[in-house]
Specification:
about 140 residues; alpha+beta; seven-stranded antiparallel β-sheet; two-stranded antiparallel ribbon; about 25% helix; about 35% strand
């Protein structure tokens, strides 16, 4: 499995979830789940139960179900993703797209579509192709 990795801070500017999502384009047809989340900020604009409840739920085997619209709403807040594994599954429950933040240091993007990697390389700097990535997402 290959992925691309890029720093989330470039020349003092944070590359947030929204920038990565805009690069990939609309993925509203996928069924999204969030695993192993940690946030810096208040997520109640998306999840009224609050940050700690969502972080706890994201550690459950099924993670947190969310829509692309909810991901857009999260990206539009001031919330920083410290850790988070956003996985988009198709109707058969197979992973098709993955946006992973690791320790507020790097974004990892995995996709079944090779064109996604090209868009990431064209949009961001210091993008590396990685053959060793965190474990493959589970079937949804």
């Amino acid at each position: 499995m290959h992925a691309v990795r890029m720093p989330c801070w470039v020349d003092g500017t944070l590359i947030g979830l929204g920038e990565v999502m805009r690069c990939l384009g609309d993925r509203g047809s996928l069924h999204w789940r969030l695993f192993w989340a940690e946030f810096n900020g208040d997520v109640r604009a998306v999840w009224p139960q609050g940050t700690l409840a969502v972080e706890d739920q994201s550690r459950e085997p099924a993670g947190v179900r969310l829509s692309w619209a909810e991901m857009v709403a999260l990206a539009d807040t001031d919330v920083q993703v410290i850790d988070g594994d956003f996985v988009g599954f198709d109707d058969a429950g197979l992973p098709r797209s993955r946006i992973l933040m690791v320790d507020s240091g790097h974004w990892w993007v995995w996709s079944v579509e090779p064109a996604d990697y090209a868009r990431v390389r064209e949009t961001f700097v210091r993008v590396a192709t990685e053959s060793h990535v965190p474990p493959e997402p589970a079937v949804g």
